[in-house]
Amino acid sequence: MQTLASRMGIPSVGSPQILSAPQILGDPVAMVENVTQADRITKYVEGGYVAADRIDVAIGPLTNLGIGATAILTGKVVDPFKPELMFFPSTLAPGVHINQVTIGSTNMVDGNTSGIPAEKYSEVSQQCRVSYPTVPVSVEIQVRITNNSGAAINNVAMAANGIRLRPG
Fold it and tell me: What whole-number distance in Å separates Cα of residue 29 and Cα of residue 10?
């Protein structure tokens, strides 16, 4: 019997110990017999785009955040962009909360008004994957953060990673 790893050409290295159930990130997947080139492309409905790239988007500007202060960081794209990962620097994250992430009029953070700990989005977190709507050219990503730590923090900014549609 072939395993998924052997079908993908990954050589066997013995019997690994499974410590826990695997964590599935992203959209559901299903194994199929054949994959066509058409199945591997990013699909879109607006004309004029011929390629898709995985890029980073700066969300800033760099700002200094005093104790108890709130700031709104913004990111603007020049082509449609689908955020899939959000990043907040782990060196600044302790005590900082993300109160709101908006794309146009859509708020991507719900629940308690105290916000989500910024550690969730740090580069060492396994929870920074998101599935936010595609950001149109005329819309900004806005992130409202609050410094609830006991010290001021400097040079605060974020980043997003995802797929950008590129015109020809």
Answer: 19
Q: Which residues contact 48 (CB under 8 A, 6 or more apart)?
A: 167, 168
- Contact predicate 137/107, CB 8 Å: no
One-letter amino acid of 109: V
Asked if 158 contacts 59 with a C-beta cutoff of 8 angstroms, the reply is yes
Q: Which fold has domain 48-167?
A: Jelly Rolls (2.60.120)
Return the pLDDT at 4: 56
Q: Give me the residue spans of the domains in the chain.
A: 48-167
What is residue 3's predicted lDDT score, i.e. its pLDDT? Answer: 60
Supply the pTM of this predicted model: 0.71
Q: In the chain, which residues have pLDDT < 50?
A: 15-27
What distance in Å separates the CA atoms of residue 139 and residue 103, rounded to the nearest whole number? 7
